[in-house]
């Protein structure tokens, strides 16, 4: 039996004001009998020829160990979703904490799926960021393939935009979600040991916490970007989701970090409109959401493209105009004209700052108008008795 190991090494990275603390995770799988220990102190359980448990060594100094039994979360009632890799289940550790277990579809397990599995664990084991789903461990034995990640409780961004979860998102919430996403992708592109291209940025791969913080998930299609600045792209078979895939990548099979930028631009339009990138049930001119929405923006009719569930005050409309301008840059046909993700982050930070200031001005103006109205009302009430006496 093969022993599978993965670890995230301690490191710190800076992105804006965010500083990442060092953490240590070491999942271990073995067939040794229960209670046995190897020379490094990890503990194992008896497997009887099958993968029975994964152990997570949370802190190598205290040697704290959490055990995850194999039958964990494999029942239908614990199924919470489907992904490129297979089925996702909700599980509970023996210490009571909730996790998500991604399980490969067995009858589909082949070389392609194996490559996606290894790509995901290799990528997840190298990264750590507040806006990326946290990797806990993995299991690989015979035809069983599991990836264990943190459980993010509030569903996907797509579910929220479809009205399947929670209240309709207001503009400030959508803007904050966009900023969380841009932080995560900028980190992958420029703040890891080796730049990473996600290759499948889409609303159903964005998970939301109860506080509507966004976390990017599903790294099955991720690829390492070239480290050599003279190498401009990675030649690879096209992977991704229809509506989000960079047309230049689709045409040339040449993948760059600007392919993620294109997908992010589509996602910005999705946040503004609430629509999916491809709306097959709509008329011909509205079927491709990005083209339709950007056309409305260029015609000066952005309000028509906005999600009708969003309030449309002047501050919101002005901010949406700026977001759409960034989306147009991100989805430029020529990838050389697209901004880097770091630049996208700077633009969105500025949009949020200006939006918050404009909201404050609107609130102050509304309060002043309310006070003036109250004074006029007070004046009219004093006049009533004299009118009555005249009668």
UniProtKB/TrEMBL annotation:
Its EC number is 2.7.11.1. Residues 74-350 form the Protein kinase domain. It is an enzyme of class 2 (transferase). It comes from the Eukaryota. The keyword Acyltransferase does not apply. Keywords: ATP-binding, Kinase, Nucleotide-binding, Serine/threonine-protein kinase, Transferase. It catalyses: L-threonyl-[protein] + ATP = O-phospho-L-threonyl-[protein] + ADP + H(+); L-seryl-[protein] + ATP = O-phospho-L-seryl-[protein] + ADP + H(+). PROSITE patterns: PROTEIN_KINASE_ATP (PS00107), PROTEIN_KINASE_DOM (PS50011), PROTEIN_KINASE_ST (PS00108). ATP binds at residue 102. Pfam families: Pkinase. InterPro entries: Kinase-like_dom_sf (IPR011009), Prot_kinase_dom (IPR000719), Protein_kinase_ATP_BS (IPR017441), Ser/Thr_kinase_AS (IPR008271). One of its GO terms (molecular function) is protein serine/threonine kinase activity. PANTHER family: OS01G0750732 PROTEIN, PROTEIN KINASE DOMAIN-CONTAINING PROTEIN. Belongs to the protein kinase superfamily. This is non-specific serine/threonine protein kinase. It comes from Eleusine coracana subsp. coracana. The lineage of its organism: Eukaryota, Viridiplantae, Streptophyta, Embryophyta, Tracheophyta.
